[in-house]
Amino acid sequence: MIGTGYVGLVSGVCFSDFGHDVVCVDKDPAKIDRLRAGEIPIFEPGLQDLMAKNVAAGRLTFSLDLAAAVNGADAVFIAVGTPTRRGDGHADLRYVMSAAEEIGRALTGYAVVVTKSTVPVGTNRKVAEAVRAANPAAEFDIASNPEFLREGAAIDDFMRPDRVVVGIETDRARKVLSDIYRPLFLRDFPIVFTGLESAEMIKYAANAFLATKITFINEIAALCERVGADIKSVAKGIGLDGRIGNKFLHAGPGYGGSCFPKDTKALARIGQEHAVPMQIVETVIKVNDQVKQRMLDKIVDLLDGTMNGKTVGILGVTFKPNTDDMRDAPSLTIVPALVGGGAKVRVMDPEGRREGEALLPHVRWVENAYHAAQGADVLVILTEWNEFRALDLAKLARKMATPRLADLRNIYNRDDALAAGFETYVGVGR
Questions:
Q1: pTM of the model
Q2: Helices H, strands E: what count in the chain?
Q3: What pLDDT does residue 258 have?
């Protein structure tokens, strides 16, 4: 497994739990040292214990030596980052192509080179070319195996997937990937075998569709606020339609994270390059940015129109609960705007401080929600961590200078908040 980031580490650990011998490779000596010491560089529930179990069983090791890891491997997975390339919205494939070249030089026998990183359509063929250029005598097949892991629920997603997508072109590669995923075959989880381009497109299309659902419900929420409807009732009413489903219909401050922002941008760029504009996706990207600004406007309204000199408590800065991932989180738009407007900002997040201290300068980090509320003019719920779902609202209200709550995840009921002593409660789409 080349790359020990989120996808590579989770996949490597889970493959080892299937009973396979797995070597996770990375170029970062500090990261490998931490992993060998039993520490994980990300927060993912259950991952540390599962990793320790498989290390102890001798099935999982960590290495800086890519050549040694590739030697004798049946399959080599590329699981390096593909961030948005600055300036043009493309996925940055430098790390993928570098890994392909190194794998090519290291191959000594037949192996399937599997791209697990999210890559634009056509990339797997370029990976094959890079491997072949580095080693014309190499015996290998190429495969595309995109990941569909939700941060915070990644182990369950890997072990009990909605589907596994495998793009292959030879029976030999199909046999290798079938053997690797045999535990899932035995439990009748769907395995979709398809071509390389189709597998690449499935990943982008899936993420773009989910991002569209989130953005759609956020636009409907804005309309609900104007006409007096309740977005929770609307979402439930449409979500019970089996053709729509109830997932990803929770109004809030917009999507973020490691996948949706970069994958929607990359898909939009792919469409432009092939003269097939992804007009819906392009609109989703624009509207999602507008949603974040609309959330900031709600907070400023609660501050009576001015941020300067006001104190704001922020509950949650990661893009979703049960992760420490801050990438493209709504907090990265909202909090700097508050600070830039002269507000004093107190922040509490169960796992976000490690990443957040560098990304959100000039804020004060506190230990719990009640500290965040102390003397605040507004308290803002940005991330729906479980520990924020059962707070003592009366205690929060008593601690605040002006008890006003911006519940941007619709965790609480307006009547309950007002009864507990809040003078103002503002949700989303209500």
A1: 0.92
A2: 18, 13
A3: 86
Calculate the CA 203 to chain-centre distance. Answer: 14
Structural domain spans, the chain = 6-194, 201-430
CA-closest candidate to residue 294, choices 408, 198, 141, 205: 408
Ramachandran class of 428: left when φ > 0, alpha when ψ lies in -120 to 50, beta otherwise = beta
Q: Give 234-259 as a DSSP string.
A: HHHHHHTSTTT-STT---SS---SSS
Answer yes or no: are the C-beta atoms of 197 and 122 closer than 8 Å.
Answer: yes
Given the candidates 3.40.50.720, 3.40.50.12160, 3.30.930.10, 3.30.565.10, the CATH classification of the domain at 201-430 is 3.40.50.720
Which pLDDT value is given to residue 361? Answer: 95
SS percent in the chain: helix, strand, coil, step 5 = 45, 15, 40
Residue type, 16: S
Instruction: Give per-residue pLDDT as tens, 112-165.
Output: 999 999 999 999 999 999 999 999 999 999 999 999 999 999 999 999 999 999
Largest CA distance in the chain: 75
* Bridge pairing between strands 140-144 and 22-25: unpaired
- Class of the domain covering 6-194: alpha beta
Sign of the C-alpha dihedral computed for residues 257, 261, 267 and 273 taken in this order? negative
Task: Name the residue type at position 166.
Answer: V
Nearest to 45 by CA among 148, 157, 147: 157
Helix extents (H) in 109-230: 123-134, 154-159, 171-180, 182-186, 196-227
Catalytic position from the list 14, 24, 224, 259 = 259
- Active site (annotated) includes residue 259: yes
pLDDT band, residue 89 (cuts 50/70/90): confident
Question: Tokens 């599962």, residue?
Answer: 50
Please report the pLDDT score of residue 85 as a whole number.
81
Residues near 330 by Cβ (< 8 Å), separated by ≥ 6? 252, 253, 254, 256, 292, 295, 319, 382, 408
State the Cα–Cα distance between residues 426 and 418, nearest whole angstrom: 11
Instruction: Please check whether the two domains, 6-194 and 201-430, share a CATH topology.
Output: yes
198 Cβ contact list (under 8 Å, min separation 6): 167
pLDDT, mean over the chain: 96
